[in-house]
């Protein structure tokens, strides 16, 4: 029952994250006006805005102009709902659950904005960094120092890869957005798990990146989504992976 509640809560939050994903890169207000169809500007009624269900009932089309609604709306709602349940199973009803759910929202917003616009908003990176450091400061000195070193090592590792990449490929390989983004992740995870994210992300990113390069001749490949995916894996299974790596 409580899992179902988290699924429903996640889908509602996911619906709001969709608004953030659309409006943040366009510098629009997150609260006003009401959501509109991007094609015909018709205001979306509340009963057409029920997470997951409305998309299925409307079969992915605007009720007025019948033009397609991006599947991204459904995907984000479902992904957020499913991850809310997994995070609940991992953390139980604890303060850490709230802490990491907030982080998860930032990861999802950054991922989908990065996919569409090849940028990660500073609101997510710097806002998250401040929150990660502040909350861990409350948990005590050792945890705060781990959080701070996580932020420094996270940012530095991507920065160094960027410098090496630039030297080899003679062009910008890593955006500064990714530097700020892994610094933010580091402030939540501490340095050990941040390094794990750093080494795990290429396993997700490289195959997709290679595919996009060959298929679409893509110039820049967003890296934020793979850092986010690796972070979720590390949050859920990081301890198990670290134990396997060091005590095997
Ligand atoms: Zn429409």
Descriptive overview:
With 248 residues, the protein is mostly helical. The protein folds into two domains: 1-91, no CATH class; 94-248. The protein has helices at 2-23, 53-57, 72-91, 95-117, 122-138, 141-169, 176-189, 191-216, 224-246. The longest helix has 29 residues, at 141-169. The protein is globular and about 55 Å long. The termini are far apart. Zinc ion binds at residues 37, 39-40, 42, 62, 64-65, 67.
Number of helices: 9
Q: What is the total number of structural domains?
A: 2
Mean pLDDT comes to 92
Secondary-structure class:
mainly alpha
- Which cofactor or ligand species appear? zinc ion
Order of helices and strands: HHHHHHHHH
End-to-end separation: 38 Å
Q: Roughly what percent helix?
A: over 70%
Strand content: under 5%
Question: For this entry, what is the oligomeric state of its chains?
Answer: single chain
- The Cα radius of gyration reads 19 Å
Model regions low in confidence, pLDDT < 50 over at least 5 residues? none
Question: Major β-sheet, in short?
Answer: none
Shape verdict: globular
Number of strands: 0
